What does this fold into?
Amino acid sequence: MNEPNAIENPFYILAPTWSHYPLIVLATMATVIASQSIISGAFSLTQQAIQLGFLPRMNIVHTAGHEIGQIYMPVVNWALACGTLAAVIGFGSSDALAGAFGIAVSLLMAITTLMATFVALHWKHNPLIVYTVNGSFLLIDLLFLASTSTKLQDGGWFPLLISLLICFLMLTWRRGEEIMDQARIEIRQSSSAFMKDLQRNPPYRLPGTAVVLGRMMRGIPLALTANLKFNHVLHEKMLLVAVEAAEVPYVSVADRVKVTPVSDCLSRVELRFGFMEKPNVPEGLGAAIEHGHIPPSDLKSLTYFTGHETIIPSGRRAGMAPWREAIFALMHHNAQRPGAYFNIPNAQVLEIGVEFAI
It folds into this structure.
């Protein structure tokens, strides 16, 4: 109050002159620590969004073998780096970034309070107490949000734009996968029709077991029917494997595998993984063999069939505008291959190409 000019930079001017350089080091270290938590959180949230079907598959590197959840995602890391550089260069100074930072923090506080309310109600806490406590917090958060909303034109639009863009991409991917599932169901052959065709025209049988990956537990995956149509061969034993992402963090080993026999040579296998887990098909099949759900087999001798799907945007199907279909096709084209995402050895993967017009 004695020196009004100190308001220009109170953090440094409050300290003695000799301590300015140590304070710069301290501020830099605090920034690194804070940014690291944001980066790690972005990795975890992106992985969970992929598991829940809101983003395409991406390369996930597990950096620690002794503890689950220690991951690194190159695409997310580079996206954060480019976004940070763009923000710093575009705004030019920390003062200009203050508006963006303020509205982002205040909106985050309000969203966190709302989410905590839903969690507390889900945990069966007294609704009156939940609404009273969280309602008071939400009122304060909304007051902060209202005060920072005046900075909307001074940079507050930046975090809102990023949020809307990410939300748009997530919803586009989700809707596109729903349309793709409808297309797959229409094209897929039913299990009964498939078995009747095998009886009418028996193919040449190869020794061993084939694992055919598919998204759904209905019908015959296109990778299997395409292989039979063009190569006229099938393995003696076939496992139709579908990986489901459960809406829980972790799935116990006892609940991991569900096997439904279709015939003597064909079985459906459903593998369930929590959204905090890395989907690993060989490990899931190993657990199924260990618990007697499927006959014993050498995991290293299995052949994995996966579909390499090419999306052709055509506007034939209702539910998504053609320009959104083009964005979905681009995201699908750049998604990580199923074999790598499900941790399947490259030497055991056989991809079958299929085209879809949506």
